[in-house]
Structure formats: C-alpha cells, structure tokens
Amino acid sequence: MTSRLERITEQRLESLSRIRARGIDPYPHAFRASHTIRQAIALFEREKDDDQSVSLGGRITAKRSMGKMSFLDIRDGTGKMQLSLRYDRLGGEKYELLHDIDIGDIVGAEGQLFLTRAGEITLEVADLTMLCKALHPLPEKWHGLADVEKRYRHRHLDLISNEDTRRIFAVRSRAITAIRSFLDGWGFLEVETPMLQPHAGGAAARPFVTHHHALDQELYLRIALELHLKRLVIGGFDRVYEIGRTFRNEGLSVRHNPEFTLLECYQAYSDYNDMMKMVEDLFAHTAQEVLGTTKLSYRDTTIDFNLPWQRICLREAIEEHCGIDFEDYPDAMSLKSRMEELGMQVELDKGRGKLIDELLSAYVEPRLMQPTFLLDYPVEMSPLAKTRRGNDRLTERFEGFVGGMEVANAFTELNDPLEQRERFRQQLREQMGDNEPEIADEDFLQALEYGMPPTGGLGMGIDRLVMLLAGQQSIREVILFPQLRIKSETE
Fold it and tell me: Which of 199, 355, 378, 415 is deepest in the core (most CB within 10 A)?
C-alpha cells in the first residue's frame, strides 16, 4: 500500500514536471534579494511608506487561496513575512503557477510593502520566482512530537519548524562571539592545536583511536587542549586560548556528548586566584552580550552572574553534604569502606582521587545552583596543578559550578618538570600496577624542562554555558548534531 508521504511526494514530482513544462527552471542558480525579512520590516517601520520596493527570498510556511487573491507566508533566517498575490497584478500565467507551489517550497518575491487593515506588514507581489521545489512536505505538528530524538536526527526539519531551536543556536553563536571578544580584549591570542595526536594527554579520559595509513601508526583524537597550549606559553606566548572540538570515548548523558566544544586559556604570571576573577568577569560579560542582562532563569532558579561567586573548599563541601572528611581517609581502601557505609556502590580498582570525585558528583554538585567555586582539590585528582601553599596534600585547583553542573576547571599550573614527571609516573602506576610505566607525555615534559613561567590555566565547556544561557537541561539541545546511536534497518 502506498503511504501518505509517498503519495504527497508523487504529487510534488508531478507539480515539478508541470513547472518545467512551463519553461521555468525550478532550481535557478541565484536570486538577488535586496533585503532580509528583518531588514524589510525595519525599513517599513522607519519610513512608514507604502511605496517601499523590496525583493525577498524565503521558504513558504503557509498558503491561503481565495480565488483570484492568495496569501503566502515566507520565512528566511531572520523572520516571517506575509505575501499578497493578486491575479490582476501578477498576470494569469504567473498566478497559475501558484497551483504548483506548495508549503516548503522556496520562492523569491518582488514588490511593494504595505500595511494591511489587520496591521500586518505585507509584501504586495509584482513578480514571483520559483527558487527551489521541495519534494517532501514539512512536518504538520512538529512542535507536538513526543519523540525528541527525531528532532536531533532530522535537525534540518527541526530548524525549519521550530523557532525556539533557531533561537538556541543563535544564542550559541553569540556566546562564542562574546567569549572571543572578551579574551581578545584581555590581550589573549587565539591559536589552533592538533586534533590528531600521537598520545592522548592532558586529562583522564578514554580516547578515540584511529590509524594513519601513510605513517602506519595509531593516533588519538584529543581529549584536552592543555599540553600543546602550555608548550606555547613555554615558547613565549604569555596569553593564549583555543576554542575547539574535543573528544572523549565515554558515555552519553544529558550533560555529556562524545565530542564537545572546549575553551582552554593560559595566562603567564598568574595563578588560580586570577583565573577565578577571569571566570566571574567572562560569565558576566557573555550573559550581558547574549541576553542583555547578567540575570537568567535556570531550573526555576534565578542566577545572577553580576554577583561574586561563592568560594567553598572542596573538603568542607563534601563533609557538609555527606559527613565524610576525606583527610581522615588517606588511602583508597579506607575511603571505599566509608563510602560503602553510606550505601554507595564502589568499584574495587578506583583510586582515592576517583572516589573523592564520586562523592563530589553524588552529594555536592547537584546542590550548587548558584555560581560557586569549589577550591583546593587533593593531589590525586589534579596531576597538572601546583600544590596548595601551606598544604602539599592539596592543589591550587578550582572547579566552577552553576545550575547543578560543572562549567569550569582551573589550576595554578605545575611548572616544576621533575615533580610533574613523578606525578605522571604515580598516575600511571595506579592505572597499570607497580611496573615502571612509559610516560606518554614525554614531549611535554621535555618542553617543561626549558622553563614555563608561573601560569594560571582555565578549561570551560562551551556547551554547558550555552545550556545555561538558553535555559536548556540537555546538552543535545545545544549541539546541532549530537551523537546518536545508528538506527538499524528494522527500526
């Protein structure tokens, strides 16, 4: 049996044939629009003149026919405009073309703007041009779809049909522009570093692995930007940043996508206190530029980035929310036993740093709705950070939290090459046992031996910042093409 969609497609193919039979090219090479729809509306509102002539291009989203007069609604990337088409103005041949024009088609229209009795700015069309014949219909009730995965799989239809989706990605674009403007204004230099790397370093995560055939060697998609950027600081670029794709071969969730956009920046002659000030200013600047205010609503909470962020020591936060002082448990086994007393399921092979991170994620992070810095993480959790002044069991590291999720991570960067080498060795021993491991980050360590000035470093997830600014609780809503499981032919 022929499906409804197949019947509509057949009808549109017949319309396409009739258009071509009229000697009309349904897919012309170009159309010179004089204005965007937003510009045309602004022109009319400014001039208040019914004689303003414009040419517009857009996709048809509605069609209403009343004999020898018809109305079309078209939309471009800036807005919607009503078109008025009259038989006596267009001429019979052009007007008859409307019979073969469908919702979803893209047209060009030239004419004069006027105000209808209902107060709607409208284009009275003197000439109509077919620009693209759509062979499939638009979704009729896209807003009401319960299966949001369809919106992610068919993002082109989501963008056509859902104004809020277009708003979200406009917010994303403006946010990235605002971040670049902020960092450029602070004297930072934007750079690019390799995505394909011989070793996956700079963070603790499972990498994606690929094979380079010409070199006949395994390469890794980067899991962080850190090690290459710090080599640039060593080379004399005192303030550098990169906004780029990063890849981690781990799970998917409402806050995690295997590829995500990361900002990392490094400032010589500074420490994590300077990075805290930068984060406060950067978030306030970005919110103001994107939203026109530093206040936003997220999960029924009003957040104001114009206020100083709360500062809480990680040790105090964990003890407050679950009663565990991790300083009382100097090794993984004792901490694991205490966590099991709380009813937590703990994997046997996890080190002390991973266990503390699980306490943070389970008991503290969900409660941090207002902008908050958690300070001074244990050395086991921070192999690239300097020890805290006055306490060598902790490091000068903070994580920033807003809306119950981590949004920033920063260090006073470790620049002692001998201590850094030993930290890497210890980290690998925990992962591989007592055998003397080969250090993958040898190139970075050798660069560090040439000397890196005291440096503050910051990493920030762009996707989560956009979630806050756009009021979204799933990372898939702010990534145009999120990673999805491939559907089988039977699904």
Answer: 355
- CATH value at residue 452: 3.30.930.10
Task: Take residue 63 and report the two structure tokens written for it.
Answer: 């069609």
Instruction: Give yes or no: residues 276 and 169 share one domain.
Output: yes
Residues near 373 by Cβ (< 8 Å), separated by ≥ 6? Answer: 276, 279, 309, 310, 311, 312, 398, 399, 400, 401
For the domain that residue 83 is a member of, what is the CATH number?
2.40.50.140
Q: pLDDT of 294-315, one tens digit each?
A: 999 999 999 999 999 999 999 9
* 99 occurs within a structural domain: yes
Q: Does residue 364 sit within a domain? A: no
Number of domains in the chain: 2
pTM above 0.85, yes or no: yes
Question: What's the angle, vertex CA 157, arms to CA 156 and CA 162, rounded to 5?
Answer: 110
